[in-house]
């Protein structure tokens, strides 16, 4: 598989990489860091990677995670605190396996934790769990969010107090298995010269537990205003949606998957369309690339992961933090994780 080939190469290369940023935590493997500032402190909501005997394949069976930990960073010392298990698979009634990339939001004193998992039929859905503390533990709702599917939830809170859920992922994330609102085991992609399979989004309801509107497609346009196509896999959406707002503009960023970039587009509202701008983070050690962007104490930060901690094993990753800069035109300066 593509994943196996890349892992073999990465294991060979691992020792020659000079890292720009250290792993934030080395006692457990962590990935897919979604960072937010709550109570003037950065909290990170990552996946918790574990060893597994599952084969490495393009469906991601080797990502067999079964719980979540929340991390936070002390403002004065930069010490990273692991708050322990925040949610376990055994406490999620509707889920059978694979707790993949999560995110969190805060509203009116309650913290909402959004996470994907396969349901009892093996279909990826997105669930929500709540806590009065940003560090959890979180109590999961009895069922997944009605109308949710696929993976990689990301929550964006706009200045007017609206919250939006962005989600979706190809291959193991099953986005290609949803046709006219129905799941099918048959993969279907738009033709090579057609608009590529889009990320999804919807506004959240006031209680944060359901979708307030039908799910919408996210359109990414090139410099001529044409949709990015299926064959353009250096630029097309694959997984790992994130939205941040800078100088009144909406930045939609995502992983290009099999070409391993974190790329982005800019739009005028949370729904897009988003005009493609370029690469935020070049490929990292490991197959996946997944990030978040957050502002804290006057600076912007990119949180990302790579597989340096496991010397190149794709499913054993570590989260990292680095400064992110917007230039005078609002464009993001591309980051490379190695010197
Ligand atoms: O961590 C499991 C999956 O790998 C995530 O959901 C994807 O975004 C990729 O990082």
UniProtKB/TrEMBL annotation:
InterPro entries: Glyco_hydro_43, Glyco_hydro_beta-prop_sf, Glycosyl_Hydrlase_43_Enz. The keyword Protein biosynthesis does not apply. Keywords: Carbohydrate metabolism, Glycosidase, Hydrolase, Polysaccharide degradation, Xylan degradation. The keyword Transmembrane does not apply. One of its GO terms (molecular function) is hydrolase activity. Belongs to the glycosyl hydrolase 43 family. This is Glycoside hydrolase family 43 protein. The lineage of its organism: Bacteria, Pseudomonadati, Pseudomonadota, Gammaproteobacteria, Alteromonadales.
């Amino acid at each position: 598989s593509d994943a196996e080939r890349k892992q073999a190469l990465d294991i060979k290369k691992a020792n020659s990489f000079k890292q720009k940023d250290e792993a934030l935590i080395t006692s457990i493997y962590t990935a897919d860091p979604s960072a937010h500032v709550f109570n003037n402190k950065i909290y990170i909501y990552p996946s918790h990677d574990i060893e597994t005997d599952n084969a490495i394949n393009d469906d991601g069976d080797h990502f067999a995670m079964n719980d979540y930990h929340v991390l936070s960073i002390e403002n004065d010392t930069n010490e990273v605190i692991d708050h322990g298990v925040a949610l376990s698979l055994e406490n999620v009634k509707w889920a059978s396996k694979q707790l993949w990339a999560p995110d969190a939001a805060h509203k009116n004193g309650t913290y909402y934790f959004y996470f994907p998992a396969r349901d009892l039929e093996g279909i990826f859905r997105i669930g929500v769990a709540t806590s009065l503390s940003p560090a959890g533990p979180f109590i999961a709702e009895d069922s997944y969010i009605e109308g949710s599917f696929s993976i990689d939830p990301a929550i964006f809170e706009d200045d007017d107090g609206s919250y939006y859920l962005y989600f979706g992922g190809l291959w193991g994330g099953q986005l290609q298995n949803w046709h006219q609102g129905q799941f099918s085991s048959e993969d279907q992609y738009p033709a090579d010269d057609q608009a590529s399979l889009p990320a999804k989004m919807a506004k959240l309801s006031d209680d944060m537990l359901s979708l307030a509107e039908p799910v919408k497609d996210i359109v990414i346009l090139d410099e001529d205003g044409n949709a990015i196509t299926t064959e353009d896999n250096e630029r097309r959406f694959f997984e790992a949606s994130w939205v941040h707002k800078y100088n009144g503009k909406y930045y939609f960023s995502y992983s290009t998957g099999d070409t391993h970039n974190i790329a982005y587009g800019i739009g005028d509202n949370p729904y897009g369309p988003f005009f493609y701008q370029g690469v935020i983070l070049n490929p990292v050690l490991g197959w996946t690339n997944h990030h978040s962007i957050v502002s804290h104490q006057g600076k912007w930060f990119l949180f990302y992961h790579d597989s340096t901690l496991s010397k190149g094993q794709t499913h054993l990753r570590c989260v990292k933090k680095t400064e992110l800069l917007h230039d005078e035109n609002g464009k993001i300066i591309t980051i490379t994780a190695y010197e």
